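Sequence only, no structure available. Ideas?
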Amino acid sequence: RNIGLGVRYIDAEVIGFTKKLSAPETIGNQYVLASVISRDTDGDMFETNCHQVVNCAGPWAGQIGELAGMGTETGALSIPLPVVPRKRFIYAYHCHNGPGISTPLTVDITGTYFRREGLGGMYICGASPESEEEEPSIENLDVDYEFFNEKIWPRLAHRIPAFENIKLKSAWAGYYDYNVWDQNLIIGPHPVITNFLLANGMSGHGLQQSICVGNAISEMILNADTYTVDLSRFNFDRIIRREKILEDFIV
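Reply:
I predicted one. Tokens follow.
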């Protein structure tokens, strides 16, 4: 759909930005990103002029933020984008007499979650580590099956007795874009890099937030006077002010 509307996708790695000061009437030392410097799959470098830049790089958003200047200078630019990759596991299992198709996404008080997957008695589940010491290495995407057997399965069976007799069918690992500050969304323009829009750190509730975030970013790009949803409390300023938006049981 996007391609049909004229969007061009470029398979390349962002390696830097060029910058220029904002208009003279701008208060302070604000600047904008004037162009993106990229390297394509053949190793050739090229430059793309830009009016707006949206950082939606997922687990690697922190690196893009640093290339743009976050965490490299003084003042507000001394604070990096606190988003890093964290590895999480998803396990798919079958239970012939488990909860029915109307079962919602269910999060146990331990943070273990499950949801129904289709009509064939399949479910998927997962959980986050309980401490920093338990965080798995991000060097590979190998699955830790002991984490399922020792942590997740007992909790599932305690919550849903039918889950005592399940059969693990498959599993995979992926990366969260993990906000180490408060594990919550960061969205909106950077206060100094004024055309640098952030849409980061929502892993754990990305499925719920993605449509709203996409709509909000499109409104920000268009410089809308009003927004469908006010997301201002989730902007980067809260990190500068050292304020947190905390919630329980982010999966």
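The chain is about 15% helix and 30% strand.
Hope that gets you unstuck.
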